[in-house]
Design a protein that fits this description.
The structure holds two protein chains of two kinds.
Chain A (H helix, E strand, L loop, with lengths): L1 H16 L16 E8 L2 E3 L2 H9 L12 E8 L5 E10 L15 E4 L3 E4 L1 H9 L2 H4 L15 H14 L6 E11 L2 E12 L10 E6 L13 E3 L4 E4 L4 E8 L6 E3 L5 E3 L3 E6 L3 E2 L3 E3 L3 E6 L12 E8 L5 E10 L8
Parallel strand pairs in A: 2-8, 11-20
Antiparallel strand pairs in A: 1-3, 3-6, 4-5, 4-7, 7-8, 9-10, 9-12, 12-18, 13-14, 15-17, 15-19, 16-18, 19-20
Helix pairs in contact in A: 2-3, 3-5
Chain B lengths: L3 E5 L3 H6 L26 E3 L3 E3 L7 H6 L3 E9 L5 E8 L3 H11 L3 E2 L2 E3 L2 E3 L1 E10 L14 E9 L10 E4 L4 E4 L5 E5 L4 E7 L7 E7 L5 E7 L21 E4 H5 L8 H4 L6 E2 L9 E2 L8 E4 L2 E2 L18 E7 L14 E6 L8 E7 L2 E9 L4 E10 L1 H8 L7 E19 L3 E17 L15 E17 L4 E18 L3 E21 L2 E21 L18 E21 L5 E14 L3 E14 L3 E12 L3 H4 L11 E15 L2 E18 L9 E18 L5 E15 L7 E2 L6 E11 L3 E10 L3 E2 L2 E7 L4 E6 L5 E2 L3 E13 L4 E9 L7 E6 L6 E5 L4 E9 L1
Parallel strand pairs in B: 10-16, 20-23
Antiparallel strand pairs in B: 1-9, 2-7, 3-6, 4-5, 4-9, 7-8, 10-13, 11-12, 14-15, 17-22, 18-19, 20-21, 22-23, 24-25, 24-52, 25-26, 26-27, 27-28, 28-29, 29-30, 30-31, 31-32, 32-33, 33-34, 34-35, 35-36, 36-37, 37-38, 38-39, 39-40, 40-41, 40-42, 42-43, 43-48, 44-47, 45-46, 48-49, 49-52, 50-51
Classes of the chains: A alpha+beta, B mainly beta.
């Protein structure tokens, strides 16, 4: 009874603050250095984590399981040059301390490039060979002949001891730190390990339709398909609709955290460097939003506005697309 | 026997006028010379007149013999009119003759005159003795009531007892009896004025006509003198170090409490102000669940509707509320902070009373009165109507929508029964229900998935309680209490959180009191509580947010589901001795043992000691020390969300204070306190620990409080309370202490209420409270999976929001009618519309923050018709 009082009190505070207080700039407005998305391909690696640890413990480094890699890339906005740093560690995916490594000392740098690769085997090898302590390991691959040092073995043993019974709940915590100018942003993403219960892939965008008449034959709804390559010309204050659809295969069936069968639901996050977006995120398929172009006084003719649409499937899968909006030359403000 | 004497003037005077009669008179001596010629005879020129008659005593012997008649007397009257001799010339009997002579000798006459000169004279007098038939003695007549009346208080019909009623013109006074009745006897017919002199009531007056051989009935209704001390709060000297007894009449009038006595507790010293006006009590820097709530010494399933809107018990069932911020007796266990002990009042056995109350939130009805010999019934019910209003006023724009608008009701049915002279029985049926379902709607797909299913609250309970008191003798008393019933707690927030708890709860208490002599009292007893529960919980594995924790955004949480059934039980045994070794000194020592059984097994011992020393007439010194334990909550003991191996939390409390009566009715109470808390249940920070909770937390609370209080009952009452305190915690012994979530350094409350003319009553409440601690956000991390930023926090509770201060005002107006009264009130909370900070809100990446303001100015009103 008393615990429910605390939950209800927290809820009261949540409801209280929803819609109350000051209006901040919307999250959809992108300005300065921001990480909008991180993609891991695949988002879930099918492998047996415990087997990897057993192999390591037995010294079987040449044929470590969980050597499959996940390729990492990020959608980052910055007005200047970006410095990158990717790192990874193991963590308990169900812990309240969502971004805590199992062992803070065993978080290894993966790359200082815009992209990185991760595999559990590579991470464990980096730890075991002492490379983790030396700096970024680069794109390590399973099967590489690396020598397990004594201290490395101790580190691995400690890692295993810390994780302990949570091994089956562990995943990889990918950390990305980007800096540009004096700004620094940190983002995290998890890569799960699956023993083959259900597949998990990144969604695929099928189309992005718009009400802009940019095609010769609009569909029955008067919509035309837009592409990343084509710059869209828009008048100041013009309202543009975007309707995003993913492929049917993207909606994967799985078992949710309640143990019930469920189908993935896409959530689309809409971003823009200027203008106003009516819905910062949308659920369901197809997802729709409206973007209102800025006033003529606020939009220079040669200043394109960038839009991004990030799609998340709720299970770590993500994809995105971008659109470029150009102010039309002969335009006046449209109602 | 009455007798009369008839006096007859003797006609003998006639012989003095024309007839030669023997006279006894002073006449000139005979001449010595031979008459040459005969001188003229003396002539009576002025006869004597009897000017002073003396009634003869009728001799009893003569009366008994039936003797009557006339006694002939010869009287010699001198020239002065004095009777110098009386001779019986014809008598009746010696007794009568002597009586006549004795009386005649006392006669006085005007002097007779012979030839114009006062002279002695002799006359004859007849004294008559007459016997009359003795009258039948009159039967003593019973006084006859011809005015019968009653004094009642206007508006309430309460009999006015032991009060003088007068008829000044007749010099008649009577005093009303226990039912307010009076009567007057033998009041002469005609218009009379009945007056009731002013006492605690205004002067009463009634004019009426008394008709012969009729009884006139009258009822006089008196108005209470608003400036009189008509209700006194009996200060029961308490052997507890700190106990504040408050009458519910007093608490109902506090502005900002909406007439709810239990909400008014929030105005007492040592009670922190909860955020957002929620109704839970934070007592001396402790968690709300550390304070126990009792009604007639048994648990209350819940105290407030919707976490603080209104209490679930109608205030008018309550006799008083005893609030212990700490240091309470061994009678109560399973609490480590304070105790709210509510006493129910006895129903009236003389007449029925009740009311209907309508205000902004709900309508309530209440009635109580006698049902049969020795029995009194009380019925109360209350129902909100927000659910009827809200759907009509909220816009239908696809936004949040109530599929079940917030609604609550509660009811109480109580029977008090006297069973002979030594037994009293009470039965109580009570229940409450809160319902709410808010669906957020789709609104273009913007609703976060975790909230898609909306918010739902479905909480109810229905209980039966019984209490039996048996007085064995003047020194030995037993009270038995029982409470059992069903409780359901249902709460959900989308898919992330879903509680469904179905509980059967019961409690049983036996309390023995033995007082062989005035200076010694022994109390011993037991109390047992059991809970059988079916629990179905879906919640983040982190469990409910713990004190000091800052939960991450809900979008990032992963929930898990748990269904289980469990039984929790506790048996408590206690004994306490209250000793008065010398006058004015009371020592109380006790020991309590609690055995927690069933699914959770622990044993605790709680020794407690207190003293009270009356130093002189007006000063009381009090103090105490005691150990207290509390079982962890259900959720904390769960193996998924908590830890089944947790120990009970523990607190060691010290207090010392003095109460000084400045003048009658005005007291100042100063207390200092210190509390150590151990085995606090905290969140396990180790992400790979087996259980999510441990007992590593410790705490300490210290401070002082001052209460200056003007007693309720006069034209003015109120109090000023100030608490200076600090409450600290650490969740890991290796950490430094940091402030508690609800630590409020300064807590000032001013309550003032005054009775004005025209049945008006005006009250204000002012509060100043240090801002609540906040854990600052020092950065954020973007969770690329959830698409939201997650804050990074600095030192726990290392900053504060600005201070809170608020003024609430209330105005009551009463109209008194003969047999009922109408109360209307207006209440304005936050009268100067201060935007009090309740917390901080942040933008999407926590790079900007803004204060979240509390409730603005809120007017409210209500009407209450009572009879």
């Amino acid at each position: 009874m008393e615990g429910s009082v605390r939950w209800m009190s927290a809820l009261l505070c949540l409801v209280w603050t929803m819609g109350c207080g000051e209006e901040f700039a919307p999250a959809s407005l992108v300005d300065g250095l921001r990480v909008l998305a991180i993609e891991a391909s695949p988002p879930t690696i099918e492998c047996d984590v415990s087997q990897t640890f057993k192999d390591l413990a037995a010294g079987r480094v040449e044929e470590l399981s969980c050597s499959e890699t996940s390729e990492l890339q990020a959608l980052v906005h910055s007005s200047g040059d970006i410095q990158w740093k990717w790192s990874a560690c193991l963590f308990d995916t169900t812990s309240s301390n969502a971004f805590a490594c199992a062992d803070e000392a065993l978080e290894c740098c993966l790359s200082e490039e815009p992209t990185a690769s991760f595999s559990l085997a590579s991470l464990m090898l980096a730890i075991g060979s002492g490379q983790c302590a030396d700096g970024c390991t680069g794109s390590a691959e399973a099967g590489t002949s690396l020598v397990l040092t004594d201290s490395g073995r101790e580190d691995l043993a400690r890692e295993l001891a810390v994780i302990g019974d949570a091994l089956h709940k562990s995943g990889a915590l990918i950390r990305l730190v980007v800096t540009s100018g004096g700004a620094k942003v940190e983002a995290v993403k998890s890569v799960r390990f699956s023993s083959g219960e259900t597949s998990n892939a990144n969604p695929v965008i099928a189309s992005v339709m718009t009400n802009l008449q940019i095609c010769e034959e609009p569909d029955a709804d008067g919509l035309c398909e837009s592409t990343e390559e084509a710059v869209l010309e828009v008048a100041p204050k013009q309202t543009v609709r975007f309707i995003l659809s993913v492929t049917e295969d993207s909606l994967e069936d799985h078992v949710d955290f309640l143990g019930e069968s469920a189908r993935e639901e896409m959530q689309v996050f809409w971003f823009a460097t200027s203008g106003e977006i009516t819905a910062e995120s949308s659920f369901g398929q197809p997802a729709e939003t409206k973007w209102v172009a800025p006033l003529a006084s606020e939009w220079l003719v040669d200043s394109p506005i960038q839009l991004w649409f990030v799609v998340r499937d709720g299970r770590g899968g993500v994809t995105w697309t971008t659109r470029t909006m150009q102010r039309s030359l002969d335009s006046e403000e449209s109602g | 026997m009455r007798r009369t004497a008839v006096h007859v003037w003797m006609s003998a005077l006639g012989c003095l006028i024309g007839f030669p009669c023997p006279l006894y008179a002073q006449i000139a001596p005979p001449p010595t010379e031979a008459p040459v010629e005969a001188a003229p005879a003396p002539r009576l020129t002025q006869p004597p007149e009897l000017k002073a008659f003396v009634e003869a005593t009728y001799p009893p012997e003569a009366i008994a013999a039936g003797l009557a008649g006339q006694v002939m007397l010869q009287l010699d009257v001198d020239a002065m009119g004095e009777v110098v001799a009386a001779v019986v010339t014809s008598g009746i009997s010696p007794e009568l003759d002597a009586a006549a002579v004795a009386a005649a000798l006392q006669f006085k006459f005007t002097p007779a005159e012979v030839d114009g000169v006062p002279a002695a004279i002799r006359l004859e007098y007849v004294y008559s003795f007459t016997l009359q038939e003795p009258e039948e003695p009159e039967e003593p007549r019973e006084p006859v009531v011809n005015i019968r009346g009653r004094l009642l208080e206007k508006g309430t019909r309460t009999p006015v007892v032991a009060t003088s009623v007068e008829i000044p013109a007749q010099g008649l006074v009577d005093v009303t009896d226990g039912e307010g009745r009076f009567s007057f006897f033998d009041v002469p017919p005609g218009m009379v004025e009945i007056v009731v002199p002013a006492t605690s009531y205004l002067r009463g007056f009634q004019r009426l006509e008394v008709v012969e051989e009729e009884v006139t009935e009258v009822t006089i209704r008196l108005e209470v003198d608003p400036y009189a001390d008509f209700r006194t709060v009996v200060q029961i000297p308490s052997n507890q170090p700190v106990k504040r007894s408050l009458g519910t009449e007093e608490l109902k009038k506090i502005p900002g409490s909406q007439g709810d006595a239990l909400k008014a507790l929030l105005n007492l010293p040592s009670v922190a102000r909860p955020p957002g006006g929620a109704g839970f009590l934070v007592v001396r820097g402790s968690n709300p669940q550390d304070t126990a709530y009792r009604i007639d010494d048994l648990f209350i399933p819940a105290l407030y509707h919707f976490g603080g809107l209104y209490s679930v018990f109608n205030t008018d069932l309550l006799e008083s509320i005893d609030f212990y911020p700490g240091g309470f007796s061994v009678m109560h266990g399973n609490a480590t902070a304070g105790l709210v002990d509510v006493k129910l009042k006895e129903g009236p056995r003389d007449r029925w009373t009740g009311y209907v109350d309508v205000n902004v939130f709900h309508a309530a009805a209440f009635a109580e009165g006698p049902v049969w010999e020795g029995g009194a019934l009380t019925i109360a019910a209350r129902r909100s109507y927000i659910d009827a209003i809200l759907p009509a006023v909220l816009p239908d724009d696809g936004g949040p929508k109530f599929t079940t608008a917030p609604a609550y009701y509660d009811y109480q049915l109580k029977l008090d029964q006297e069973l002979g002279s030594s037994d009293q029985l009470r039965l109580l049926f009570y229940g409450s229900d809160d319902q709410l379902r808010l669906v957020f709607g789709d609104k273009g797909g913007e609703t976060p998935q975790f909230l898609r299913d909306g918010i739902e609250n479905n909480t109810w309970f229905h209980f039966v309680a019984a209490r039996h008191e048996h007085v064995f003798s003047d020194t030995f008393r037993l009270v038995s209490s029982l409470n059992f019933g069903l409780q359901h707690l249902g709460f959900s927030l989308g898919k992330i959180i879903d509680f469904d708890l179905d509980l059967f709860r019961n409690a049983w208490r036996e309390d023995f009191t033995w007082r062989p002599i005035q200076e010694f009292k022994l109390r011993f007893g037991m109390d047992v509580e059991y809970v059988l529960g079916d629990i179905d919980i879906t919640a983040p594995v982190t469990g409910p947010p713990q004190e000091g924790s800052s939960p991450p955004p809900l979008e990032t949480l992963t929930s898990t589901r748990r269904e289980t059934s469990n039984t929790y039980g506790r048996r408590g045994f206690y004994t306490e001795a209250i000793v008065e070794p010398v006058d004015d000194l009371t020592l109380t020592g006790g020991l309590r043992l609690d055995w927690y059984g069933a699914a959770y097994r622990e044993l605790t011992f709680d020794p407690r000691f207190s003293f009270r020393w009356l130093m002189g007439e007006t000063t009381t010194l009090k103090g105490g020390v005691g150990l207290y334990h509390r079982q962890p909550d259900f959720g904390e003991l769960d193996e998924v969300f908590g830890n089944p191996n947790l120990l009970p939390e523990e607190s060691l409390q010290y207090s010392l204070g003095v109460v000084q009566e400045i003048v009658e009715g005005l007291t100042i109470d100063v207390q200092a306190f210190y509390k150590e808390i151990d085995d606090l249940v905290t969140e396990n920070k180790d992400p790979f620990a087996e259980y999510a909770r441990n007992n590593d937390g410790v705490g300490r609370v210290y401070g002082g409080e001052v209460l200056l209080r003007q007693q309720y009952g006069g034209w003015f009452w109120g109090w000023i309370s100030y608490t200076l305190s600090r409450s600290e915690r650490k969740t890991d012994p290796a950490e430094e202490f940091r402030v508690f979530d609800f630590d409020q350094t300064h807590l000032l409350t001013l309550i003032a209420s005054a009775k004005l003319p025209w049945e008006l009553e005006f009250g204000v409440r002012f509060r100043y409270v240090t801002g609540n601690p906040q854990t600052p956000v020092i950065g954020a991390v973007f969770d690329a999976d959830a698409g939201v930023h997650v804050p990074r926090y600095g030192a726990v509770n290392s900053t504060r929001v600005p201070a809170f201060h608020q003024l609430d005002v209330r105005l009551d107006k009463t109209w008194l009618f003969s047999d009922w009264k109408l109360l209307a009130y207006i209440e304005v909370q936050n009268a100067y519309n201060r935007a009090n900070p309740e917390g901080l809100e942040y933008n999407y990446d926590y790079s900007e923050s803004a204060i979240v303001g509390g409730l603005p100015i809120i007017p409210g009103f209500g009407l209450k018709a009572s009879f």
